[in-house]
Amino acid sequence: MQIVLLSGGSGKRLWPLSNEVRSKQFLKLFTDENDQKESIVQRVYKQIKEAQPNASITVATNNLQYDSIREHLNDEVDVVLEPSRRDTYPAIALACVYLALEKKTSLEETIIVLPVDPFTELSFFRTLSQMDTLIQDNKADLALIGIKPLLPTSKYGYIIPKAKTENISYVDMFVEKPDEETAANLINIGSYWNGGVFAFKLQYLLSIIEADVNFINYQDLYNKYSQLEKISFDYKVAEKASNVAVIPYYGKWTDIGTWRTLTDEMPQGNIGSVVSEKTRNTYVINELNIPIVALGTKDIVVVASNDGILVSDLMESANLKSVVEKL
Known about the structure:
By secondary structure, the chain is of the alpha/beta class. The protein has two domains: 2-255, Spore Coat Polysaccharide Biosynthesis Protein SpsA, Chain A (Alpha-Beta Complex), CATH 3.90.550.10; 259-324, no CATH class. It is built from ten helices and 19 strands. It has helices at 40-51, 66-73, 88-102, 122-136, 180-188, 202-212, 218-223, 233-236, 259-265, 320-324; strands at 2-6, 30-31, 37-38, 56-62, 78-82, 110-115, 118-120, 142-147, 158-161, 169-175, 192-201, 244-249, 253-255, 270-271, 274-277, 280-286, 292-295, 298-305, 308-313. The strands form five sheets. Strands 8-11-9-10-12 form a five-stranded mixed beta barrel. It has a four-stranded mixed β-sheet with strand order 14-16-18-19, covered by helices on one side. β2 (30-31) and β3 (37-38) form a beta hairpin. α3 (88-102) packs across α6. It starts with a strand and ends with a helix.
């Protein structure tokens, strides 16, 4: 089993701590079992190695995040650098060609692609073994993990199974980020959130890449990277595949994408030089060398860094990206 972690994003939803270089997966806002600070990428790597100790891990990222990947994971992973940002399909394609032609990975081996930043439990990563078995037994060309929805939301794509079973279903269709009313209807018929996890044989994706771009080796594809279609893996591959299976996951899973979801998982309300009195549901993160005082506040998040200062209602923080883009 070869695991490809996708590490990208500009982190605008978690401004001002997150930016082009220090994206959300590198924020050390969590604690490990030894009460030491850790980032999401460190947490995910540790969980993968515990659940899948024999798996090899490659991180697909961009030049801006290379130093951060090495700082958080040292030399324990291979790193494939995109020459430019071109969505998830080109990034996965480049990583797979690297595995095939540079690492000499067997074309029959299972490749499992997942985001670098899910906040979830160890059982989620144990599910990767089921995906591997499905692919190796040729029961599907492509396998996904479907997350049991907690509520109707337009944040995620949805997977609609043909016939819902306890352990595996085959996919009828995908719906990308519907409105909440449609999402509620999809949940009522047994649909899952799309967790962005894909498993396939290396040869399967290579055949798709070769139909896109002619290349003779890894460096040649790297040089021709701009010729790869700028499109998500979901649109390019998953929605066109005819034999797609989905494995349901019923445990805890969170996409740490906003201050609202991140603060739900933070072990403490205040980080840095903070004085907090008579507050309720207030989170203050201070990276500056001056104190922040919160007095009598409720349902807010305050974040201060050298990039700026955020003061936001927790629910409204979901709309931060559109505001930051104006700065």
